[in-house]
Amino acid sequence: MSSSDTVFHLAPQIFKSYDVRGLYPEELNSAGLACIVRAFAEHTAARRLVVARDVRASGPALAAAAIAALRALRVECLDIGTVSTDTFYYAVAALDCDGGFTISASHNPGNWNGLNFCRRGAEPVSLSSGLGHVRTRALELAGQGWRPGPPRAALRSVDVLDDYADYVLGFIDPRLLRPSRIVAHGNCGLQVEMLQRVVHRGRLPLEIHPLYGVPDGSFPVPGGVPNPLLPENQGEFLAAVRQTGADLGVAWDADGDRCFFADETGYFISGYFATAILARSILASHPGATVVIDPRNIWATQETIARLGGRTVLSRAGMTIIPQAMREHNAEFAGEMSAHFYFRRNHNRDNGMIPLLLLLELLGRENCRLSDLVRPLREHYFTSGELNFRPPDTASLVRHIESIFRDGRQDHVDGLSVEYPEWRFNLRSSNTEPLLRLNVEARSQAALDTGLDRLLELLGAPVGAGH
Known about the structure:
The chain is of the alpha/beta class and 467 residues long. The protein folds into three domains: 3-159, Alpha-D-Glucose-1,6-Bisphosphate, Chain A, domain 3 (3-Layer(aba) Sandwich), CATH 3.40.120; 163-380, Alpha-D-Glucose-1,6-Bisphosphate, subunit A, domain 3 (Alpha-D-Glucose-1,6-Bisphosphate, Chain A, domain 3), CATH 3.40.120.10; 382-459, TATA-Binding Protein, CATH 3.30.310.50. It is 36% helix and 22% strand. It is built from 14 helices and 23 strands. The strands form four sheets. Strands 1, 2, 3, 4, 5, 6 and 7 form a seven-stranded mixed β-sheet that branches. Strands 18, 19, 20, 21, 22 and 23 form a six-stranded antiparallel β-sheet that branches. A five-stranded mixed β-sheet has the order 9-8-10-11-12, with helices on both faces. Helix 6 (191-202) links the parallel strand 8 (180-185) and strand 9. The radius of gyration is 22 Å and the shape is globular. The model has no long low-confidence stretch (mean pLDDT 96).
């Protein structure tokens, strides 16, 4: 145990809406994490849990502390090693266990770490569905200086990688895939290696050109933040798509649960447009299906899905919120603008590999290029992208904007949405950061510019890109 782990570092603010994330070791260290893990095991009355981690350098030490805490509590540990988050979800659903956690900080820089929890069947755990109780108990244990005793339960190493590869292949008919060249931007996570495993096991006719495909928890990507949404993280990726003559590009965040696409021209496709495109695949095999979307941008998805005979349901954004909405509405698929894509057949959880396989199958079935599917969306729907603000008083500012735009059609599914015939906007507080997020969409560039200018006069200058 390092000197940094001889004291308890467990900051209350690291407990977010649907996971735990903080600076390592200043806000979260091994001693603090052991308390969180014990609190989770107590809350779920678990006897067997899956333990996983992403590629961060602090992962092995934190995993060792977590396993020691569980074994001292007579909780058997199924250690699946270093895996992507979607592989972790698969393992919790596939193995006989009471739930589990992966030690990960998603797309945050390498000096962060945290925890993402599931119950049995990969059911998500959020602040309102158990994580709040875990926080209270963990802080109590840290205050008492709790340390785990000797191990009293088994530790088993379980290799799920081949089984997971076969599982995602089961979502498509591999015979429909055309020979394709793909630039795969892994952001130094594990998904490029997993894609290569999937290609090998499925004998898929794909030529993979890796970019930042070697796992590396120091994240030597531009800016040091393994997030495909950041503009500085897109230039090299899009240039590689054009220079290699690739049929498409795919980019994942570091833990692999989100994926973004680029078409063969090097155009970066938003999660918003990708949801509309993937809905074509879902509705081809499930006519009339329900698709859950978040309210940040909606026209392209609503209108595309309606033309294809499907139905859309609006839900608040969030990786623990969307699955509940899918269960309530018996939805086959859900897509968020943040490029989390959820599937009923995947226990209503998000996955970063299935969307790529479905997209490749769709291109083969329709015998078209990706740009052919993107072009109609680009020609009819114009978006601002997500803009972030840090006002001194968020609540009063939103009330003021609600009053100013009271002549538009308003809803409050997630924050404030206001719709006019030619443009609409959504303004919501982030689930993960102290920010106010704005998305504007319109039916023309002129309408977009006019609406956005009005809002920026009220909100001021944005502070940067979001999740």
